[in-house]
Amino acid sequence: MNPQIENNFSYHEPTPGQPEIYQAIRKKAKELAYLIDDLAPGSREKSLALTNLEQAVMWANAAVARHDK
After folding, report:
1. Distance between the two ends of the chain, CA-based, in angstroms?
2. Is residue 29 part of a domain?
3. Which label site among 7, 42, 64, 68 has the fewest CB atoms less than 10 Å from its CB?
4. d(Cα 37, Cα 35) in Å, to the nearest integer?
């Protein structure tokens, strides 16, 4: 059994305080998304920037869910 695989592919029920952390991460990312949307011209690069920002939020939330501080 591989502990990392077990951890990465398991459901992690939010602990007290985690939903607020998720909201804070999403709020800041949304601010940046709007900044990118407002300032960057429509392009593949802009789309990639927004996609990668979404990925960053997902990975940040996964870090919070999977690991204790």
Report:
1. 24
2. yes
3. 68
4. 5
- For 29, residues 6+ apart whose C-beta sits below 8 A from its C-beta are 53, 54, 56, 57
Asked, for residue 1, whether it belongs to a domain, the answer is no
Contact 53, 29 (CB under 8 A): yes
Residue pLDDT, tens place only, 2-59: 999 999 999 999 999 999 999 999 999 999 999 999 999 999 999 999 999 999 999 9
pTM tops 0.85, yes or no: yes
Q: Is residue 51 part of a domain?
A: yes
